[in-house]
Design brief:
Layout: E1 17-18, E2 37-38, E3 62-68, H1 70-76, E4 81-87, E5 100-104, H2 127-132, E6 140-145, E7 158-159, E8 163-164, H3 165-181, E9 190-195, H4 197-208, E10 216-219, E11 242-245, E12 248-251, E13 253-256, E14 262-265, H5 266-277, H6 286-294, H7 316-325, H8 328-343, E15 348-352, H9 360-372, E16 378-382, H10 393-407, H11 419-434
Parallel strand pairs: 5-6, 5-9, 9-10, 15-16
Antiparallel strand pairs: 1-2, 3-4, 4-6, 7-8, 11-12, 13-14
């Protein structure tokens, strides 16, 4: 079933059924639960609207956009859509052409890139005032909505289970966006950025479509080389859930805090997804999307797991498929002769050395491979930092602006935003809170 605007969250997805809440003393009574309640859409659909990827009203510099993908509709046998939250630059002129940043990540609902307008975290402080001031570099920022049957995000590559999302993005979605809002329409005028899932997507899109995109800022990326699938070496380990130490087995951690304290194990995370998705482990969680994206499609129409979701035992045949199709380190190694001239100077990697999901390990491996072939980008690892960009959104925007000045003919911009500007914005926000 298509996602109906809930981002694969069973608790808020329209048309999901539920019962009233019961307190149960197991073993002492029989309980019958009637699924007689239905989650309703957030708003009534206007004429011509469809619910897929949801619908939102334009406000200020933020516009909403959606297309029906012919490629994905053919794959799924029903109308399938891709949506976008489009953040226009201050003083936007529809007669001009602009570079476009394609922001990657999980289901954003109505949120634009950089979390413009929200500023919930320290890294976002002042970004709205900065963008609105006209001092930010002039480009369009697109946050993509592509929740699907398996997850809140497509991973934006072609997949046996999800469909040709990479081709749909590059052949249908990007041309439509740039025609509607005035994109430059050139590779150097298209940037990529995102963290975590969005980091992997940014890196994969830059590598798989080097003639389409002109620069990527991937941060805290999901495992880019499957020698480091978090803490698992998918090629040499026997089990995802356990680490063998001679005669004993230790539980393999899945998440930690920046002090190293384990928050959950790989077994616990997978069992949680099993509880949501049943014995086929289709719980729409993080481990499930790895299987849906990276794995071949089985005879039953579902992804073939690279490991047994109950025991954690690794399936070597499926891992070989992963290596041939989605291991980014292996991809660079196989294709470096033609690929490297196309991506030199375009990759800007960032992560903390205490990444909460151990993703810094894959970062190290891929960096070594890129450096071997003189990639001329940068790879920055930040001490005692966790799962983040390790920079503010203003710093990220300014770094991309400086890059565009160097790479896009005729593009002009000079930074005039100062620490004093940011201080004034934060003081104004504090005054609003106090009042």
């Amino acid at each position: 079933m298509q996602d109906n605007g809930g981002g694969c969250n069973y608790a808020v997805t329209p048309y999901n059924l539920y019962s009233k809440v019961y307190t149960v003393d197991w073993g002492n009574e029989d309980i019958t639960m009637d699924l007689k309640y239905e989650i309703k859409p957030e708003r009534k659909l206007n004429e011509g609207e469809v619910l897929s990827q949801n619908n939102y009203d334009d406000k200020g510099l933020l516009r909403y956009f959606k297309i029906r993908s012919e490629l994905l509709s053919q794959f799924w046998g029903e109308d399938t859509y891709i949506g976008a939250n489009v953040l226009l630059p201050a003083n936007y002129d529809p007669e001009k052409k602009y570079p476009v940043l394609y922001w990657q990540g999980h289901w954003p609902k109505d949120t634009p890139a950089f979390r413009y307008g929200l500023e919930l975290r320290e890294a976002e402080q002042g970004v709205t005032a900065y963008w609105d001031s006209g001092k930010a570099p002039q480009f369009i920022a697109v946050n993509i909505r592509d929740a699907n049957m398996y997850y809140d995000d497509s991973y934006r590559v072609n997949s046996a289970n999800l469909g040709p999302y990479g081709d749909a993005l590059t052949q249908e979605f990007i041309p439509a966006i740039e025609k509607e809002f005035g994109g430059l329409g050139t590779a150097e005028g298209r940037l990529l950025a995102g963290g975590s899932t969005g980091g992997w997507e940014s890196m994969a899109l830059q590598l798989f479509y080097p003639d389409v995109f002109g620069g990527a800022w991937p941060a805290c990326c999901d495992g880019m080389d499957f020698h480091a699938f978090q803490l698992v070496d998918m090629y040499n380990d026997e089990n995802v859930y356990e680490i063998s130490h001679n005669w004993r087995h230790a539980e393999r951690p899945g998440m930690r805090d920046v002090k190293g304290n384990v928050i959950w194990t790989m077994r616990e995370e997978n069992r949680y997804e099993l509880a949501l998705g049943g014995d086929l482990a289709h719980g729409m969680g993080q481990m499930g999307i790895f299987q849906a994206c990276y794995s071949p499609c089985g005879e039953d129409g579902y992804p073939v797991y690279s490991y047994d979701p109950l025991t954690g035992k690794i399936n070597r045949d499926v891992v070989e498929y992963w290596e041939q199709n989605y291991d980014l380190g292996a991809y660079v190694e196989r294709n470096h002769e033609w690929l490297m001239p196309k991506i030199r100077g375009k990759i800007h990697l960032r992560d903390g050395d205490m990444d909460n999901f151990y993703l810094n390990l894959g970062h190290y491996i891929l960096t070594d491979i890129l450096e071997k072939y003189d990639y001329q980008g940068y790879s920055k690892m930040f001490a005692r930092q966790g799962h983040s960009f390790c920079m503010t959104m203003i710093e990220l925007i300014e770094e991309m602006g400086e890059y565009l000045v160097k790479t896009v003919p005729g593009y002009k911009w000079k930074s005039t935003w100062t620490e004093e500007d940011l201080r004034k914005v934060l003081e104004q926000k504090q005054e609003q809170v106090n009042s």
